[in-house]
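Weekly structure sync - notes
Attendees: PM, LS, DV (DV joined late)
Agenda: review two folding runs queued last week.

Item 1: First target. Sequence and structure tokens pasted below for the record.
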Amino acid sequence: MKLWGGRFTKSTDSFTDHFHSSISFDSRMYRQDIEGSIAHVAMLGKQGIIDVEDSQLIQKTLKEILADIEAGNITFDEKAEDIHMNVETILIQRIGDTGKKLHTGRSRNDQVALDIRMYLKEQITDIKALLKKLLTVLNGIAERNVDTIMPGYTHLQNAQPVTLAHHVLAYVEMFKRDYDRLCDVYKRTNVMPLGSGALATTTYPLDRRFVAEELGFDSITLNSMDGVSDRDFVIELLSALSVIMMHLSRFCEEIIIWNSQQYKFVEMDDAYSTGSSIMPQKKNPDMAELIRGKTGRVYGHLMAMLTVMKGIPLAYNKDMQEDKEGVFDAVDTVKMCLPVFTGMIDTMTVNKDNMYNAAGKGFMNATDAADWLVKHGVPFRDAHAIIGQLVLYCINNNKSLGDLTIEEYKNVSDVFTEDIYNAISLETCVNTRTVEGGPSEEYIKSLIELNKKIISEMK
């Protein structure tokens, strides 16, 4: 008979057992479940709710069960439904009626809420560490490429020259925000729900704050109905993971483009590339493509969880069992993608000459030419029109702005002098943009040093 089967007159259908069971995916929370139970039963003994001797025996046996699970000596039973019932069943098998006292003052509703919070806290910590490593690698790439000039784009059209350092540091900002989001999610995950009971706490004199302290939680939930039915922290984590994947996917998209024969800005290391089964010349950026593809998978889990929760009345409902598979898979996906992406970008070869040559095409210095005119007294709108005429002239004559003679410049405006050539050099275009946030070498070097300090202080 199932542990909850007292009011039932017959067993559940075998297919129903399979449909209802969650042990196939929630078994990964075995350690959190046992640690939570140890803290709970220690509190029961401290409070005199059960005998201290019974509390100590249960704690000792739970630790033995944990050791046996980690040694591979225990097989979970689908008929016991979930990890919580499996552990309790094994406990009762080992110490008899004393084991039945473990669940005093507790429901599976607050127990599962505790377990998933404990599990996700650990996962958030792991993902933060992976982000910190990625940030270190990206900041290092920037430091090595402060003077690597490349095209900057809007609408994927040539816009203005920047440096690879400036480009990469844009992603550093994104991943810094991702790190901060995870810190925020952790704060709201680190709230202890045990003691909420099924929905209305219990008549036993529980010491919830003792359990919270034992398990490393900052605080306890303040409403028992919310304590068992809140999955905001799961949705928040899925959202944060989706944004991480979006940032990875954006960068992967650029790497795929840069790695193409038409660009040749970078070359992926063989360790992060694959070949074709039919075309022997191919070297495909499959790792970047897979990360880009897996982004949709994580998005799907976020939307699924939002949909699960949107129509659930208070308090706990079985629908909420659907929280685990999605968030577990999203966590696994991000934890797999981050180190692959980090290794891929850390080992790629940067073709600096190709980047520089590309930056010299497409009139990327046109804005600087217009700014030169403004600095020489020409209203910006007039300057914009003058440079527009020169660009059209260049297009018609297959020239760049740097190819034009001073006479050709003066044919459009008498304001031009020989100084225009220095003003439109790629180096000048980049390094005179000294406004905070810009691509100048001076500012970029200061930002790299600031990032080193920020990264070193990440916990």
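Item 2: Second target, run right after the first with the same settings.
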Amino acid sequence: MDKMWAGRFQKALDKEADDFNSSIHFDCRMYRQDIKGSMAHAAMLGAKGIISKEDSEKIIDGLSGILEDLDSGRLSFDYGCEDIHMFVEQVLTERLGDVGKKLHTARSRNDQVALDIRMYLRDETNELIALIKDLLGAITEQAKAHKSTIMPGYTHLQRAQPITFGHHIMAYAMMLSRDIGRLEDAMKRMNYSPLGSCALAGTTYDTDREMTAKALGFDGITLNSIDGVSDRDFCAELMSAYAVIMMHLSRFSEEIILWSSWEFKFIELDDSYTTGSSIMPQKKNSDMAELVRGKTGRVYGDLFAMLTVLKGLPLAYNKDMQEDKEAVFDSIDTVKKCVSIFSPMIRTMKVFPENMYKAAQGGFINATDIADYLVKKGMPFRSAYKIVGQIVALCIEKKTVLDELPLDEYRKFSELFGEDLYDEISLEACVAKRISAGGTGLASVEKQIDYINGLIK
């Protein structure tokens, strides 16, 4: 079959070059957006008298039939077509004859594909936001159940201060809430219609770009036709947001992997989200979390591929821009899969409070509270800090912990130590005293949970 642009050429495109040039194998996933965009365009052409109302209605009905047939499977993609745009126009022309050939009046594939990818990413990103909200729900469920479960908090992977498990995982909820904001911000900048920019210079027809923009749910139109067809900032911006999401999931995965190990044994993942070993029957591997951690590099690579494609392109459209789709499609597909698997993995994981508490008892993580105790009794903080460091060294020498060191040993360092010391430095007291906003105290954790739950409703 002749290409729709074949009039200028005297020779057919080489078969291998044709395959190399074709994009329908991956851009066919945008068929819904392409057809909806074409229906809006046809309605505008009829409303403006560029084609007759009768022809406009025939085209819209024909496109609706193609959409129904593709959705139902009655119509299959012809991978001999160059791209999804040519496929839809070809089928329409086969069904309507010359009327179908009028659809492409006052537009180009350049503004058509720029429209399709914006609509596609808008749909996919809205789905991703819904998935992230579900993950936030899973996190808050666990946080609510364990808002008083004491564990050691870490810095430098060294035990630092006592916190609650609910407080710890709510940190990831805050990260993911910002991810939603980044996605929504990026979509606001993306949500302007390029349709009507044509190849790069606009058109001689008296079109109504605002009409098609409104019909397709855009906030307005792109104001420069060259920018309209050559802009892929929104791809890079969304992919950057996708990469940040994966970074957050990867950090969470790393902790899940550590917590699942026998060295920690803070949690156990459900059998449904772990695998075994081919040779070691005792193994229960956190493979889903490991895969999420690994796939983060893949999404980073997609972002760098996009930026590299765009970095040297002159205006306006260039065929290089066809390379945007596989990268952005892979990126959104990967992120959605990872978020989808994360939610049930978090919901079903089993938490071991007793192991967390036992770990919190070691490591002298209530040392700061002893320093605060002395400060409240009038000692300068730096002096208190030095004394507590000496007390920790003594405990290490005597192979004991701060809670069990006798009071007379404490009083060798300062007469400010009294019988109330042990109540002040219990793990429960250390957590309960963290009353500052955003801290690990019960009221603060409950406030964090309420905030996230309000966000996801």
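Discussion on item 2: Strands lie at 150-155, 158-164, 267-268, 350-351.
Action: LS to circulate a short write-up before next sync.
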